[in-house]
Amino acid sequence: MFLEVYGDTLCALVSAAAMASTGHQVTLHVSADSVANKLDNDDFSLREPGLAALMLEQKRAGRLVVAPLSVLPDSQCTVLWLALAPDALEFAHQLMDSLPANIDPEFLVVNQSTFPVGTTEALQRGLLNRPGADSRFGAVVSVPDLLTEGAALSGFTRPTHWLVGADMPWASRLVAELLRPFNRRRDGIMQMRPREAEFTKLAINGMLATRLSYMNDMANLADSLDVDIERVRQGMGADTRIGEAYLYPGCGFGGLSFSRDVMSLASTLHHSGLQAQLLEEVLQINERQKETLFRKLWQHFDTQLEGRKVALWGVAFKPESARIDHAPALKLIEALWAQGVQVHVHDPRALPALAEWAGERDDLVLHDDPYAAAAGADALMLVTEWKSYWSPDFARLKAEMAVPLVLDGRNVWDPAFMKGRGFVYYGIGRR
Question: Is 290 annotated as a binding residue?
Answer without folding.
Answer: no
